[in-house]
Amino acid sequence: MLAKRATKLPKGDDWMFEPKWDGFRALLFKDGDDWYLQSRDSKPLRRYFPELDAPIREILPDRCVLDGELVIARNGQLDFAAMQMRLHPAKSRVQKLSGEIPASLLFFDILALDDRDLMNTPFQERRRILVDELEGCPPPLYLTPLTRDRDQAQDWFERFEGAGLDGVIAKAPGGVYTPNKRTMVKVKHERTVECVVGGFRWYKKHHGTHVGSLMLGLYDTEGRLHHVGVAGSFPMARRLELVEELAPYRIDDDDAEGHAAHPWGEWAQHMRDAESKRQRVPEGSSRWNPGKSLSWNPLRPELVVEVRYDQMLGSRFRHTAHFRRWRQDKPPTECTYDQLDITPPAELAELFGS
User: Fold this and answer.
1) Taking the model in full, what pTM does it have?
2) Domain that holds residue 298
């Protein structure tokens, strides 16, 4: 179940509010001593968090499906970078990190209990069941706070930012659980969006050794990946690091099959067809400086990046976006336009119509 982005708490009094945790979203399936933890894109997570094995087996109900968030809290705030470190292929490294930077698991929804499928049960009832089962559970398992008080929710939004929380989640009390639909509301402190990285350009002063910008894409409702802008303004040291980070995803010049499979492959033909398809693809030259080359290097569209942006101009970013972090926990298919909550000012709507 997903959420649509907003910049303010939704209007009306019939909302239930929770803090928005900054970690890895996770679904937990438990049957006796057997349990399975998966990410939003169905990747297994259990092996990366062995410290949770005993608490999950001993504390949680015997048979249940729970929705929650994996987080690491250090020095009074959430540490997303530490979370990323936990996704390590070496078992010995995972064991070491589980002792040094242990994770916690917060629960905010219950989808099944014993033989009961709760997905069509109203959220306020699911919350009551969740509280009955988990209230008072000891660390590292937690029941997320919830309030119906808008003033308290606004207080959370304003005060908790420094602790690393993303914002506030608003849920309708009567809402059922709707997988893959954005029926919750997430109120965040800044405009951010997850994009697919479809390619990159070299830094003009250090061609071949330093990355200049990342080329960003969003999927539309028909599954077409549109070029929406670039992320840039990196420090020089970061430009150098990006070369190594992008290397596993590069499509070699002689890889004809890789080029053809890329959503922006066969650039020349795509540029000729783009207008008729109404699809944004990377340009070959600058709109403002025809002599400036905008040649780029394709990447397999598997990397997801979270970027900060100021505003949209039509279907693309008005200005250069700013890199925030990689999102290994997000599948590229979720990088869609419907993440964006773009509402025209009321004055314009009244003047020109919605």
Assistant:
1) 0.69
2) 192-339
171: in domain = yes
Task: Please provide the size of the chain in residues.
Answer: 354
What does the alpha-carbon distance between residue 348 and residue 354 come to, in Å, rounded to a whole number? Answer: 8
Residues 6 and 154 in one domain: yes
68 versus 5: which is more confidently predicted?
68
Establish whether 20 is a catalytic residue. Answer: yes
Question: Counting Cβ atoms within 10 Å, is residue 205 exposed (0-12), middle (13-18) or buried (19+)?
Answer: exposed
Per the residue annotation, which of 4, 8, 11, 20 is the catalytic one? Answer: 20
19 and 158 co-located in one domain: yes
User: Is 182:338 a contact under the CB 8 Å cutoff?
Assistant: yes
* Number of structural domains in the chain: 2
Residues 19 and 140 reside in one and the same domain: yes
Q: For residue 242, what is the domain's CATH number?
A: 2.40.50.140
CA distance 29 to 7: 33
pLDDT reading at 286 higher than 70: no
Could you read off the pLDDT of 233-262 as tens digits, one per residue? 899 999 999 999 999 999 988 888 888 889
